[in-house]
Amino acid sequence: MADRRHTREILTVLFLCVLWYVVSSSNNVIGKMLLNEFPYPMTMTMVQLLSIAVYSGPFFNMWGVRKYVDISWKYYFKLIVPLAFGKFFASVFSHVSIWKVPVSYAHTVKATMPLFTVILSRIIMGEKQTTKVYFSLIPIIAGVGIATITEISFDVIGLVSALASTMGFSLQNIYSKKVLHDTGIHHLRLLHILGRLALFMFLPVWVFVDMFHLMEHPAVTTANYRVLALLLIDGILNWLQNIVAFSVLSLVTPLTYAVANASKRIFVIAISLFILGNPVTGLNICGMLLAIFGVFYYNKAKYDSKQMQKKQTLLPFNQKNWQERNNGYIIYPQKNSVVSNGVAENHTTPNGFVSNGTIKNGSIHNNSFIYNTNSSSSNLLFV
Predict the structure, then answer these.
(1) Residues 300 and 174 grouped into a single domain
(2) Residue 381 domain-assigned (yes or no)
(3) Rounded to an integer, what distance in angstroms lies between the CA atom of residue 118 and that of residue 130?
(4) Pick from 85, 169, 198, 235: CA 20 to 30 A from residue 176's CA?
(5) Tens-digit pLDDT profile for the chain (383 aa)?
(6) What domain range is 140 assigned to?
(7) What's the maximum distance between 2 C-alpha atoms anywhere in the chain?
(8) Is residue 336 located within the same domain as residue 213?
(9) β-pairing, 353-355 with 368-371?
């Protein structure tokens, strides 16, 4: 029964990953086609956030997605607001990047996400990495550098926008898993909350930048149904992509999600080159592949680092080392003796625990713990 459940979970994740790749590549291709005719990345972002806010409520209720959980205002402003800001920030600059440069190059630049994750994790959480993890960033930076130098359709605004969107997505990755773990909120409800909050934050920006210019565009004045249809499809595809991405994130570990995201990037690059026919050189492709290889190497280095931490925590120490460390608990071979807060003389009970006391005329045997409250260390060691 457990094996059948495990197989079902694996098949579910595989299906969601394939669906994620197809929807994401379609969304990027249609987005590029739309921006070539309708150069308003802010409006595209607005439509996408509006799609999340409008479609999510009714559909999630129909699907039986559990309701919201209570979140304190302090936690809301500490984590939910930065997440929503990262969502609209990343969305806007992602659209600007695929507007200015080819989709393949934009996604190659987004392969720098591990670099931003390492930097932001260090700044926000004080998290340090191993030397191997830092070295894994070298092929990513080198690959993006080669792809940038050899990119035929290079644009500085496109490069900066791709980097900015990557930083926003990194911010989301850092906080999303923490919020899901801390609050127990359903991942789709979290998507709905972030979509509405991001729409509220982004609305004044859209009004100031795009709305008045939009009224004069031929697609609006002449009611160009092709552009309107592409906007609608782009919004729906983005909504579906967010649902699938959040579902995958909720089912797998952050490491597995990172690997799946890197694989998705390869798929999107390949599909965009095939359908849109962007001109590329051999060296340009080598740069893309090197950057993607760096992402996989980074994920492997992170995995090895976590495995090493687990071994350091779980591997047993020998008796001499434990006595020398004196980390609060000292193990002596004992047989059925216990002393608690006092002095025990010739007292035996099964599997004893000794706290703040001394033992007189009693032998200590077989797996008992003596606790020394005068130890300067506050570490607890679980065995």
Answers:
(1) yes
(2) no
(3) 11
(4) 235
(5) 667 777 888 888 889 889 999 999 999 999 999 998 888 999 999 999 999 999 998 888 888 887 767 788 888 888 888 888 888 889 999 999 999 999 999 999 988 888 888 888 888 778 888 888 899 899 999 999 998 888 888 899 999 999 999 988 888 877 887 888 888 888 788 888 999 999 999 999 899 888 888 888 787 777 778 888 999 999 999 999 988 887 887 787 766 777 788 888 888 988 888 888 888 888 888 999 999 898 888 888 888 888 887 777 654 544 444 344 444 444 444 444 444 444 444 444 444 444 444 444 444 444 444 444 343 333 222 22
(6) 12-313
(7) 100
(8) no
(9) parallel
Residue 370 forms beta bridges with which residues?
330, 354
| E-strand stretches of 121-180 | none
Nearest alpha-carbon partner for 25 in 124, 135, 106: 106
Q: Tell me the CA distances in angstroms from 192 to 54, 335, 367, one per residue in order.
A: 9, 59, 53
Provide the domain count of the chain: 2
Give the position of tokens 């249609």: 30
**Between helices 41-62 and 187-206, what is the axis angle to 10°?**
150
* 93 in the same domain as 239: yes
Q: For residue 359, list its beta bridge partners.
A: 344
Residues sharing a CB contact under 8 Å with residue 161, sequence separation 6 or more, in sequence order: 93, 94, 96, 97, 100
* Residue 122 and residue 161 share a domain: yes
| 326 and 350 together in one domain | yes
Are residue 302 and residue 362 in the same domain, yes or no? no
> Do 222 and 332 sit in the same domain of this protein?
no
Which two three-digit tokens encode residue 205?
A: 């920006």
Residues 6+ apart with CB under 8 A from 125: 174
Residue 126 counted as domain residue: yes
Helix extents (H) in 252-366: 254-276, 282-314, 319-325
Q: Collapsing DSSP states into helix, strand and coil, what is residue 71?
A: coil
Is 153 domain-assigned?
A: yes
Q: Name the β-bridge partners of 360.
A: 345
